[in-house]
């Protein structure tokens, strides 16, 4: 480069560097509604220093002086220490535990659904048997020898009573 170009480029570089530092002079603070405010102007005097999240270098308010000036309030609780973030092993153990619980819950749901289906089928069969007994037709069964035997009226009445009991207690 020629010497004249250096003479022009050097002041421009210094000016550019000065502008960049001014651009970094940003304030970030939280207003009364809890909304973060981003600006190049300092926050109003009503904003306590504890809510100022970022200030330009050299303009950070001294929180120690502000806290020392504030009277001690007995109703204020001491700050709760932050809970440490769980380790990877702890997170993996929690994940495995949740998966196991989900698998057990799914198994219980499947078993419950199967039991409900079996109960519904048993209730349908009991209702069908009750309708057949109440129809008045002759009803036969197989005895221990495999021979066909017709039910007596007393046996039919006993079977109808058992069916009514089952329908009243298990089938709603």
TrEMBL record:
Residues 91-102 have a biased composition (Basic and acidic residues). Coiled coil: none annotated. Residues 1-25 form the signal peptide. The keyword Transmembrane helix does not apply. Residues 103-117 have a biased composition (Low complexity). This is DUF4124 domain-containing protein. Keywords: Signal. Residues 39-126 are annotated as: Disordered.
């Amino acid at each position: 480069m020629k010497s004249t170009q250096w003479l022009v480029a050097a002041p421009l570089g210094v000016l550019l560097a000065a502008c960049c530092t001014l651009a970094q002079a940003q304030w970030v603070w939280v207003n009364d509604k809890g909304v973060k405010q981003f600006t190049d102007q300092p926050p109003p005097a009503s904003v306590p220093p504890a809510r100022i999240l970022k200030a330009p270098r050299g303009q950070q308010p001294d929180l120690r002086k502000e806290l020392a000036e504030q009277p001690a309030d007995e109703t204020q609780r001491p700050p709760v220490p932050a809970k440490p973030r769980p380790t990877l092993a702890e997170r993996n153990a929690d994940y495995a535990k949740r998966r196991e619980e989900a698998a057990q819950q799914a198994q219980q749901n499947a078993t419950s659904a199967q039991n409900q289906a079996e109960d519904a089928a048993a209730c349908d069969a009991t209702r069908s048997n009750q309708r057949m007994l109440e129809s008045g037709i002759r009803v036969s069964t197989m005895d221990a020898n495999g021979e066909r035997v017709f039910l007596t009226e007393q046996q039919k009445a006993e079977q109808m009573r058992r069916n009514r009991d089952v329908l009243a207690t298990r089938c709603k």
